[in-house]
Amino acid sequence: MLGPTRPVPHVGAFARIKHFGGGSERGTVVAVQEDGRRLRVRDEDGELHEFLLSPANACFVSADSAHGPRLELVEEPV
User: Fold this and answer.
1) Lower CB count within 10 Å: N or C terminus of the chain?
2) How far apart, in whole angstroms, are the C-alpha atoms of residue 1 and residue 28?
3) Which of 28, 1, 23 is nearest to 12 (CA)?
4) What one-character-per-residue DSSP string does 1-47 give?
5) Average pLDDT by consecutive 10-residue portion of the chain (78 residues)?
6) What residues does 61 pair with on adjacent strands?
């Protein structure tokens, strides 16, 4: 039986918040909503970010702006 090909979103999951221009920072998933299609993530400074799963490319994108950061779930702390 095949399993998921990428990390499944869950509370406590490690994440990388990738900013336009190449910068990134660590984050932790603090809430999973809409069957895993909406995530709230706390960054290193304690700020909350909200991400939506884009139906166009299956990537998590900022809920605030199309030009905002992207989210990458990772298996281990970055």
Assistant:
1) N
2) 29
3) 28
4) ----SSPPP-TT-EEEEE-TTS-EEEEEEEEEEGGGTEEEEEETTS-
5) 76 94 94 96 96 92 90 82
6) 52, 70
What is the pTM assigned to this prediction?
0.87
Q: Which amino acid belongs to residue 24?
A: S
Cβ(71)–Cβ(16) under 8 Å?
Answer: yes
Nearest to 10 by CA among 78, 74, 68: 74
Cα 20 to chain center, whole Å? 15
3 state SS of 76: coil
